[in-house]
Amino acid sequence: MLENIGLIIASLTAIYGVNEWRRELKGRREYELAEEVLTLVYDCRERLRAIRSPFSHTGEGATREADANETPEQTELFNRAYIVFERYEQHREEFAKLFALRYRFMAVFGQESAEPLEGFRKSLNEVFVSANMLPTYWLRQGRVQMEKDEFERHLKEMHEHESVFWGTLSEKDHFNDKVEDLVSEIEAVCARIIRPQPFWKRVCYLVTERNTG
After folding, report:
1. Are 189 and 37 in contact (CB under 8 A)?
2. How confident is the model at residue 212, as a pLDDT?
3. Are 184 and 121 in contact (CB under 8 A)?
4. CA pair distance 198, 1, nearest whole angstrom
5. CB atoms within 10 A of CB 152
6. Please, is 14 exposed, middle or buried when counting C-beta atoms within 10 Å of its C-beta (0-12, 13-18, 19+)?
7. How many Å apart are CA 187 and CA 43, to the nearest integer?
8. Do the Cβ atoms of 174 and 126 come closer than 8 Å?
9. CA gap 25, 193 in Å, rounded
10. Category of 196 on φ-ψ map: left (φ > 0), alpha (ψ -120 to 50) or beta
11. What is the pLDDT of residues 71-130, one digit of tens each?
12. Which residues contact 98 (CB under 8 A, 6 or more apart)?
């Protein structure tokens, strides 16, 4: 009987040790993933700002392959819009690293937790969409006769695309505000793993929730 009891205790100890090891390994992997994603998000936020910077230098956008039938004026406008694509190429690798982690992040922390990452990716694509659309508006501006309603719609749409295309470096940069909100959401998810609350704070939170609920 003593041998059986000893065997049972040894087995339970081994099972507990394996489970504890698994929990520790899972926690370490979650920590490393959260830390990597949050670091990349901070980095790519600054890179996105650089891509949208309103300051440009002579020759930016000139790597675009111009059509043989373009006029010099058209070439200038198309090159101006191409600036964001040219800048993106300098940062492509870091964005690719971040977006490659989306599905792993989703698998570990849940689909809802990964939605801000998808929103960040879509925001970057919005910049590209506006870059593709703006030459059409710029070429029509002051060169095509439009009725009043059509001209007002033209201006509104052009300004909307420009507000995405260029950063304003002011409080009126609503596109940047949206990106900051997405970063804050990602930070909140990662912070629960990287900087967990002390036990007593979690208890107080649960008690408060129960009393107010």
Report:
1. no
2. 54
3. no
4. 44
5. 11
6. exposed
7. 13
8. no
9. 14
10. beta
11. 999 999 999 999 999 999 999 999 999 999 999 999 988 899 999 999 999 999 999 999
12. 37, 40, 41, 43, 44, 117, 120
Q: What residue type is assigned to position 204 of the chain?
A: C
- Between CA 102 and CA 109 the distance in angstroms is 10
SS3 of 59-105: CCCCCCCCCCCCCHHHHHHHHHHHHHHHHHHHHHHHHHHHHHCHHHH
Tokens of 107: 């698998």
What is the identity of the amino acid at 36?
E
In whole angstroms, how far apart are CA 85 and each of 51, 89, 128?
8, 6, 7
User: What gap in Å lies between CA 57 and CA 135, rounded to an integer?
Assistant: 19
Terminal CA-CA length for the chain: 52
Q: Which residue has the tokens 């959260």?
A: 34
Give dist(CA 168, CA 24) in Å, integer: 46
| Distance between CA atoms of residues 41 and 108, nearest Å | 17
Residues in Cβ contact with 69 at an 8 Å cutoff, skipping those fewer than 6 apart: none
Instruction: Report the pLDDT value the prediction gives residue 17, as an integer from 0 to 100.
Output: 45
